[in-house]
Design goal:
The chain is α+β, with helices and mostly antiparallel strands. The protein is built from seven helices and twelve strands. Helices cover about 30% and strands about 25% of the residues.
Amino acid sequence: MVKFYKSIIFLLLPILMVSCYEDDAPIVEDENSLYQSSDLSSKLKSITSHNASFDDLIDNAFCFSLIFPYELNINDQLRVFNSAQDFNLLREDDTIEIVFPVSIVFSDYIIQEVNSIPELNALINQCDDFQSITAFNCYSIEFPLTIKDFNDVDSSFETHHFFNNKAIFLYLENLHDSDVYEIDYPISILNKISREIVINDNQEFIDMLDSSPSYCE
């Protein structure tokens, strides 16, 4: 009788193991599998990096932007700026001075406090060194974006739902070399004129990005 039960358990074991993996929805590596080193991972980081160039009129720095709110001395008058919409108040002949201290955020979302003009100028002069990834803001992702991954460190499967660029960028930035992930297609992205583009797989995504202009107004 004991042998009989052992035989039953032995036969059922593969079925139980398959059921467990089905519940965890494992990733089967194929053409849609991605790694930290994948070309599409790099392109996706470019799309989701912080667009630091929108306030170049104020800080003259393409690799970081000032964090709102902050004060500017405009023609010897102090004004508080709370958003990019406040830039509409500026004129071409305005004399603009930043009131320190201010906080800045780099393209990779790292934040730093700056306390003086010399500090700011030193950072501006190092922009080429700081710019580890080239921002590509011709497209925006329609959220949420769903990613499934397999973590080789603790052998776990997980599904992630992302609702902003920063979350996606930091997820990709913190991947281990051996981590495998997949984008849950189809996804939608918007170009600069808000035209929706539906993407169905990795290669389609790469082809679309490779055929795009290198710079967008």
